[in-house]
């Protein structure tokens, strides 16, 4: 083995390359530059990382050949340096890698495992979202010249069998809660993993795509992630995800960061959560900055220079409006017919769930024709497409409603995925990466038939991998990808693949979960229909983009290149605006007109003078989808007018949360008044906070443009 590398800090000024972003300057003077421009938000780049004290053991040939770039080596060094810290509760400190797509989290994680192996720790755990990502893990290790580190898939090992001794044990998050009763013995995967690790395990545990553990208190899988960390207190934990810290409440599984708990300002996670949520977006930005300064966090992303984002709005034709209105009236009739069963909560839960899905997919179907037109235009320009898509009386009543549904079904659009594939030339032209087992295909004689997606000797997951290969080699130039296949799969124009055409990412269906949207977003055209209730999903994503930028990148403006801010209604202003809208408009006007039932916005779905209102933005936007088009659009217009008025009012009164703001040098005069220094006996290392109080004098220049007549 070669002599050890000693890395030294070389933090320098950052060059601005885009709004709110600066070129990331690597703090370690080691390795070859990353092949692409990588940036860091201005807010996050305004604070330096800690000095580097860790000595790297990765071989010279790996560093000098560029198998790991300088940026990836920087993350490896800081992760290993943080792993040397023992928190006050006796557990080893962990590290969070929040790098975006393209920076190379996979190679970085592989590098951390290689470093650990070279230090004599020959066992590591790697958790991810799919068993097939094991092949990606093996590829990442090969790419950094570490093919001798074996990777074992836990799903291929029998319960209780731990014949493997050294290497990487690869498993999915769902495997953590696996159980077996074979042979009358109760066995669990968690115990099997702990037995393999053995007591005093101090190897690496990688939680890749760690956002999957965000519901750590409410799901068995999330609790298992916490349990594993508690039972292996000396393990070197690495959290890796572009969306791992999307919201403060989703950080609960990151117990090794040392932000809360013994010896910190927050005794429990709930104390931390309450303090951050109480102070809004600005507090989230400060948390991200503090995490970087403390050496527990790094977050870079590829520059969005040259990347475009646009929202394509589609005007509905009269035929679609007619079908939509028929559907809305039929749903309202169904709701009215079942009012007597309002006490059955499970029934109403199913009703509103079906209501939401039906209108969502009806809206998606309206986008197909325009999306195909855009796609063909982009293909003619030498680009490739990536699409992202998710009693006797009662018996008589049921039969009547089913009859009407059958009639309406004749007018409803075709299955969106099948129609898209057909319009693009069939399965021979399109790489489909979804969870579907089969599809309806149009044959050359215009007949249609159902075909299985399975190929000989391949599972559905392996079919998706094969389809990915066909896209990356250029055999197919259009890819359709769903949530089932989105996490962990990269379709970027990688320099190692044949198909390096510019990617055009069209989002036909925004995911219900906002952090899943970030996993999919790149150079993106978001296709929306001119139907105001459709913005519900865009609203969820817009809310997330703001908080994601604030916490994950230290700047809520970090996501402006993927801006959906016009759809962000989920805040205190939005809540008051929706209540005002519902009370002043829908309950008075629409009830009088008999066009809508107050029940769609209230806990009890029936008309009543004393109905308890349970209104939220999400519910409001979900439920108006069930209104006829013109009613829906007019109600939403009233809502947005209210919203804009209240936002402007709060801004004028200084009540609107703007987060951390830049003091623009421009024509403003800035004078420092006082400076206070606060020493924090923090964890994991000591630091200081300096509070500056400044006076800003804004200078306004009034320019008068006078016409010749006025001068005369």
TrEMBL record:
Which superkingdom, per the lineage? Answer: Eukaryota
What are its GO biological-process terms? cellular response to interleukin-6; macrophage activation involved in immune response; regulation of DNA-templated transcription
The record places domain Strawberry notch AAA at 34-326
Q: Which UniProt keywords apply?
A: Transcription, Transcription regulation
**UniProt xrefs under Pfam families:** AAA_34, Helicase_C_4
A GO term for molecular function: histone binding
Tell me which InterPro entries the record gives.
Answer: P-loop_NTPase, SBNO_Helicase_C_dom, SNO, SNO_AAA
Domain called Strawberry notch helicase C: residue spans: 415-662
Any one GO CC term of this protein is: nucleus
Q: What does this protein do?
A: Acts as a transcriptional coregulator, that can have both coactivator and corepressor functions. Inhibits the DCSTAMP-repressive activity of TAL1, hence enhancing the access of the transcription factor MITF to the DC-STAMP promoter in osteoclast. Plays a role in bone homeostasis; required as a positive regulator in TNFSF11//RANKL-mediated osteoclast fusion via a DCSTAMP-dependent pathway. May also be required in the regulation of osteoblast differentiation. Involved in the transcriptional corepression of NF-kappaB in macrophages. Plays a role as a regulator in the pro-inflammatory cascade.
What family is this?
Belongs to the SBNO family.
- Subunit arrangement? Interacts with TAL1; this interaction inhibits TAL1 occupancy of the DCSTAMP promoter, leading to the activation of the DCSTAMP promoter by the transcription factor MITF.
Spell out the protein name for this chain.
Protein strawberry notch homolog 2
| Source organism per UniProt | Cyprinus carpio
Q: What is the lineage of its organism?
A: Eukaryota, Metazoa, Chordata, Craniata, Vertebrata
């Amino acid at each position: 083995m070669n002599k050890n590398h000693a890395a030294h800090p070389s933090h320098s000024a950052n060059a601005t390359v885009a709004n709110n972003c600066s070129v990331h300057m690597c703090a370690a003077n080691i390795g070859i530059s990353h092949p692409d421009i990588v940036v860091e938000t201005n807010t996050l780049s305004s604070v330096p990382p800690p000095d580097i004290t860790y000595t790297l053991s990765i071989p010279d040939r790996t560093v000098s050949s560029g198998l790991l770039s300088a940026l990836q080596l920087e993350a490896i060094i800081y992760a290993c340096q943080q792993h040397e810290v023992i928190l006050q509760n006796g557990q080893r400190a962990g590290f969070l890698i929040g790098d975006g797509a393209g920076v190379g989290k996979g190679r970085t994680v592989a590098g951390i495992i290689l470093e650990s192996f070279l230090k004599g720790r020959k066992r590591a755990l790697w958790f991810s979202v799919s068993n097939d990502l094991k092949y990606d893990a093996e590829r990442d290790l090969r790419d950094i010249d570490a093919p001798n580190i074996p990777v074992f898939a836990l799903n291929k090992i029998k319960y209780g069998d731990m014949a493997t001794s050294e290497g990487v044990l690869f498993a999915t998050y769902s495997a953590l809660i696996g159980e077996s009763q074979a042979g009358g013995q109760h066995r669990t995967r968690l115990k099997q993993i702990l037995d393999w690790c053995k007591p005093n395990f101090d190897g690496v545990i990688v939680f890749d795509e760690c956002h999957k553990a965000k519901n750590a208190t409410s799901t068995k899988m999330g609790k298992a992630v916490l349990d594993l960390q508690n039972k292996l207190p000396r393990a070197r934990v690495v959290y890796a995800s572009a969306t791992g810290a999307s919201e403060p409440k989703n950080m609960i599984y990151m117990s090794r960061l040392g932000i809360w708990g013994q010896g910190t300002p927050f005794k429990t996670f709930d104390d931390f959560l309450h303090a951050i949520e109480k102070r809004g977006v600005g507090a989230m930005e400060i948390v991200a900055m503090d995490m970087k300064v403390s050496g527990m966090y790094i977050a870079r992303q590829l520059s969005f220079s040259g990347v475009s984002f646009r929202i394509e709005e589609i005007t509905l034709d009269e035929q679609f409006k007619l079908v939509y209105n028929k559907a809305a009236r039929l749903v309202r009739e169904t709701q009215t017919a079942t009012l007597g069963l309002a006490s059955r909560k499970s029934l109403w839960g199913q009703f509103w769930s079906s209501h939401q899905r039906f209108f969502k997919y009806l809206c998606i179907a309206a986008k197909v024709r325009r999306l195909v037109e855009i796609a063909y235009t982009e293909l003619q320009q030498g680009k490739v497409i990536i699409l992202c898509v998710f009693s006797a009386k009662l018996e008589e009543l049921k039969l009547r409603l089913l009859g009407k549904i059958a009639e309406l079904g004749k007018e409803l659009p075709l299955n969106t995925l099948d129609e898209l594939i057909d319009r693009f030339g069939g399965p021979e032209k399109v790489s489909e990466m979804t969870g579907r087992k089969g599809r309806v295909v149009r044959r050359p004689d215009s007949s249609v038939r159902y075909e299985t997606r399975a190929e000989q000797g391949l599972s559905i997951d392996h079919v998706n991998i094969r389809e990915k290969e066909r896209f990356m080699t250029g055999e197919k130039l259009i890819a359709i990808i769903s949530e089932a296949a989105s996490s962990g799969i990269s379709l970027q124009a990688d320099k190692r693949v044949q198909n390096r055409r510019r990617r055009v990412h069209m989002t036909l269906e925004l995911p219900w979960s906002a952090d899943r949207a970030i996993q999919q977003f790149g150079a993106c055209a978001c296709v929306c229909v001119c139907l105001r209730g459709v913005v519900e999903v865009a609203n969820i994503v817009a809310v997330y983009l703001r908080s994601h930028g604030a916490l994950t990148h230290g700047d809520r403006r970090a996501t402006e290149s993927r801006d959906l801010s016009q759809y962000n209604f989920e805040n205190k202003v939005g809540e008051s605006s929706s209540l005002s809208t519902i009370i002043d408009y829908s309950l008075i006007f629409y009830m009088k007109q008999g066009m809508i039932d107050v029940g769609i916005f209230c806990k009890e779905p029936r008309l009543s003078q004393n109905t308890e209102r349970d209104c939220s933005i999400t519910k409001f936007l979900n439920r108006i989808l069930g209104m006829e088009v013109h009613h829906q659009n007019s109600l939403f217009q009233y809502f947005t007018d209210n919203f804009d008025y209240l936002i402007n009012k709060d801004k004028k009164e200084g009540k609107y949360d703007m987060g951390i703001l830049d003091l623009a040098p421009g024509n403003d005069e800035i004078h420092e008044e006082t400076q206070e220094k606060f020493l924090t006996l923090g964890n994991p290392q000591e630091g200081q906070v300096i509070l500056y109080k400044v006076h800003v004098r804004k200078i306004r220049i009034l320019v008068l443009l006078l016409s010749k007549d006025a001068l005369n």
